[in-house]
Amino acid sequence: MTWDAMDDHHPSARLRRLPSRMLSMVAMHADRLVSEGLAREDARKWHYAALVALDEAGPASQAELSKRTGIYRSDLVAVINELAERGHVERAPDPADRRRNVITVTEPGRRHLRRLDKLITELQDDVLAPLTQPEREQLTGVLAQILEHHSRSRTS
């Protein structure tokens, strides 16, 4: 991506020294690439997040799945509906509390998730193309550190 593609003009050195601006520009580019790639597979970022959370930690109530993924409960209902319509998840009443639903990933959902995992890996490689593997790991670690700091400060 060239500076022209990001800003319609070459940004000043002063702007290039602002980490928050650089993070924002890279995030916008990465978000666009990932969203477009997932759309080609008839999926969205929230579909992927929900399937990963269910695959890794098992069935969950809608409230628990919301906590695991960071998807607002009101938005999660639409995500679950879309995944259920495609046969990727099942929604059933919780035997312990019939007022709640438990969401479970199906075998077709697991197959779809494996395809999405492969695609996400390819998209990550595209986004991070100029970095070596150690640089990618370092960047991911630094970003996780920043996110953890701000997540803690929001809950304090």
Automatic annotation (TrEMBL):
<dbReference type="GO" id="GO:0003700">
    <property type="term" value="F:DNA-binding transcription factor activity"/>
</dbReference>
<protein>
    <submittedName>
        <fullName>MarR family transcriptional regulator</fullName>
    </submittedName>
</protein>
<dbReference type="GO" id="GO:0006950">
    <property type="term" value="P:response to stress"/>
</dbReference>
<dbReference type="InterPro" id="IPR000835">
    <property type="entry name" value="HTH_MarR-typ"/>
</dbReference>
<feature type="domain" description="HTH marR-type">
    <location>
        <begin position="16"/>
        <end position="148"/>
    </location>
</feature>
<dbReference type="Pfam" id="PF12802">
    <property type="entry name" value="MarR_2"/>
</dbReference>
<dbReference type="InterPro" id="IPR036388">
    <property type="entry name" value="WH-like_DNA-bd_sf"/>
</dbReference>
<dbReference type="InterPro" id="IPR036390">
    <property type="entry name" value="WH_DNA-bd_sf"/>
</dbReference>
<dbReference type="InterPro" id="IPR039422">
    <property type="entry name" value="MarR/SlyA-like"/>
</dbReference>
